[in-house]
Structures are given as structure tokens and as C-alpha cells.
Write a structure and sequence with these properties.
Layout lengths: L14 E2 L10 H15 L21 H6 L10 E4 L2 E4 L8 H20 L5 E8 L1 H7 L12 H25 L3 E9 L3 H6 L16 H17 L3 E5 L7 H6 L4 E5 L5 H12 L3 E7 L10 H15 L10 E5 L8 H23 L1
Parallel strand pairs: 1-9, 4-5, 5-6, 6-7, 7-8, 8-9
Antiparallel strand pairs: 2-3
Helix pairs in contact: 1-3, 1-11, 4-5, 5-7, 10-11
Length: about 350
């Protein structure tokens, strides 16, 4: 075999992915989303295909149900659906039908992923709900949220760490060509947990503030488990007051944000993450169709303005920057979802070209 030709090294390139969710209410919609992400991102070295979520199929397919579906089939974290949402059953009997449905849907989704990703080689991303958003959403057997019980929220974080590590192993088995596995931990509820804004079951009060050291520890258990499983732990928080420094301190190697919701200190935290060698996923494409036309050039210009504002040179951090839609696409129509993915991919290629000029 002849030696590979010598020459300049391959230039760095920014990357593109999606946050995770797609529109639709059927299994066919999920299968189409898999084809879309693998078709748009799987054929391009700048793309990171993400295992799609289609929450329109019902609560078992939503972010809370899907993550509860990762827990062991029988155990302390069996949950069923109540009018107020997911509630732990507190029994060791047969798993509730709602949670069995969540596990079944997740298994079907991963079967579809495995089939369509056959032969794929490259990076892959999956998403799970974080421990604090989960604790703020799931009720204990006798009422009120897991968040109300210090021991329960600790146990939940530790159980989630084990479940996510097993999920990473399963995804690797199903995608043997994956040379980079990313687990995006979704924590949209974390700012409310830190600020004491989560309502109690009665609706007349708020749960007590969870202080940063405890929030750090709960996240750290999950993020360390992801890293020990050989995957990259990212955290996605699409809230205006996302605690980015806390997330990095807890072990997040990647931060995913809606750029439109980032304030002054947040921009500094993102810039610092890049300078420290971390990854930043900038949500820059709307999640629903805008009123006017949107081009990949306009998206690219927005990213370049952010680099100008932070004083960073995009050429120096190109392979650390990932462009995404601003959040999940579940609220979009199918046409905009396809266009949002395409815009993200084209803007990413444009960023690489602009940085090399």
C-alpha cells in the first residue's frame, strides 16, 4: 500500500448538531427524524447526528418519560402517570404500564437508530434529562416532588448516573462505528431549582432553594459517570439565567445554550469555556419558522458577531464550536424542522470558510 500523500494538515472545522426533539406524533415521524439527522449530518464530517426524540407521541416519549425509561425494569424508580405528571409508585411490583410504554418506545427508537445507522462512522449524540430537572418534575409516592426530600434527590442523581452509563454502553453497541459519543444532559429546570422557584404540589408555595454545592454534587455524579463510560458530558440549559460556571465546575466538557437567552456574564462564561479547551454549542437557528426569510448567511453573521463581541478569534476555536437550533424542534412543523437542520449545517460550513479567510 502506498503512503498517503503529504501536505497541509486538514483544517479545523466547526460542527453542527440538533438539540434533540422533532415534531410529529407517530413512530413514522420518529423514523423520518432519524433519516433526516443521519442524512444531513451523517454524510458530513462537520455533523454530529443526534438520536432523535419525538415527544408528540405522548408523555412516555417526552424528556421525563424517556429518561425514566432508562432506569431498571423493577426498582425504586418505577413511576406511573397521574394528572399532575409522573409519580413514583413506591412499590417493587410489576413496572407500571406507563413506564413500560416509555421503555418500549425508547427500545423501538434505538432499534430504528441501529438499523439506519448501520455502517455509520463518526460522532453521535444522545440526550437525557438531568437530575435536577428530573427531581423538580417527578413526584414522590406520597406527594410533592422528589426535590422536597434531600435523601431522595441524592438517590435519584446516583441512580441516574448508573442508568446513563448503561445507556452509553447500549448506544455504543448499537453504533459500533461511533468514535465519539456525546451525552447531552438537559437541565432546563436547574435555574428554578437554584432560585427556589419550583412550585410545591399545592401550588401555594415554593420548594426551598438548592444551594450550588449540592447542585454541583448531583450533577457531578451524572457527568462523571458519563465520562467514566467513555463519553463526553455536555449540559444543555435553555434558560436566561443558566448557571454556566456551575455546569463547567461540575464536569461538563460542553455547554449548549440558546444564544438569544445568554446575558453578559453568560457570554464571558462561554468564552472562558472555549479558552479552557471546552466545547460550546451555540443555539442560533429559530425553533419555529420566523416571520421573514432566514438565510444561512444571516445565521453565520450572527455567530461572527458573537465572536467579535467576546474578542475571540474563530479560527483558534473552530473545532470547539458547535452550531445548533436554539432549542428542540418539537414545536416546529416538519418543513421548518428540515430547513432548520439544513440551515444549521450550511452555516457551520460557512463558519469554517470564514475563519480560514
Amino acid at each position: 500500500m502506498s503512503a498517503a500523500p503529504t501536505g497541509d494538515p486538514t483544517p479545523a472545522a466547526s460542527l453542527a448538531t440538533v438539540i434533540g426533539s422533532f415534531p410529529g406524533a407517530t413512530q413514522a415521524a420518529h423514523d423520518e427524524a432519524v433519516r433526516l439527522v443521519l442524512g444531513e449530518f451523517g454524510q458530513d464530517p462537520t455533523g454530529i447526528p443526534a438520536v432523535p426524540e419525538v415527544p408528540g407521541r405522548g408523555a412516555p416519549a417526552g424528556m421525563i418519560g424517556r429518561t425514566l425509561g432508562l432506569f431498571p425494569a423493577v426498582g425504586a424508580w418505577d413511576a406511573d402517570l397521574q394528572p399532575e405528571g409522573w409519580r413514583l409508585t413506591g412499590t417493587d411490583g410489576a413496572p407500571p404500564i406507563d413506564q413500560r410504554r416509555a421503555r418500549s418506545l425508547l427500545g423501538q427508537d434505538l432499534d430504528t437508530w441501529e438499523e439506519q445507522a448501520d455502517g455509520y462512522a463518526g460522532a453521535v449524540k444522545t440526550q437525557v434529562t438531568g437530575p435536577w430537572t428530573l427531581a423538580a418534575a417527578v413526584e414522590r409516592p406520597r406527594g410533592d416532588k422528589v426535590l422536597a426530600d434531600h435523601g431522595a434527590r441524592r438517590d435519584l442523581a446516583q441512580a441516574l448516573a448508573l442508568a446513563v452509563a448503561e445507556h452509553v454502553a447500549d448506544l455504543r453497541r448499537r453504533t459500533p462505528g461511533a468514535d465519539r459519543v456525546i451525552v447531552q444532559v438537559d437541565e432546563p429546570g436547574l435555574p428554578a431549582v437554584l432560585a427556589g422557584r419550583v412550585p410545591t404540589a399545592s401550588g401555594f408555595g415554593k420548594h426551598r432553594v438548592v444551594h450550588p454545592p449540592e447542585a454541583d454534587q448531583g450533577l457531578r455524579w451524572v457527568l462523571e459517570a458519563i465520562a467514566e463510560a467513555g463519553a463526553e458530558p455536555w449540559v444543555h440549559c435553555c434558560a436566561p439565567d443558566a448557571p454556566l460556571a456551575l455546569l463547567r465546575g461540575a464536569g461538563a466538557t460542553g455547554l449548549a445554550v440558546d444564544l438569544g437567552l445568554v446575558g453578559g456574564e453568560g457570554h464571558d462564561a462561554l468564552a472562558q469555556a472555549l479558552e479552557d479547551g471546552g466545547t460550546v454549542a451555540l443555539g442560533v437557528v429559530p425553533t419555529v419558522a420566523p416571520s421573514g426569510a432566514l438565510t444561512d448567511t444571516a445565521v453565520l453573521e450572527r455567530v461572527l458577531r458573537w465572536f467579535d463581541m467576546t474578542g475571540l478569534d474563530p479560527a483558534e476555536h473552530l473545532d470547539q464550536v458547535v452550531l445548533t437550533p436554539s432549542c428542540g424542534l418539537a414545536g416546529a412543523d416538519a418543513g421548518w424542522a428540515r430547513r432548520a437542520v439544513a440551515l444549521t449545517a450550511r452555516a457551520t460550513r460557512g463558519l469554517a470558510e470564514a475563519a480560514q479567510e
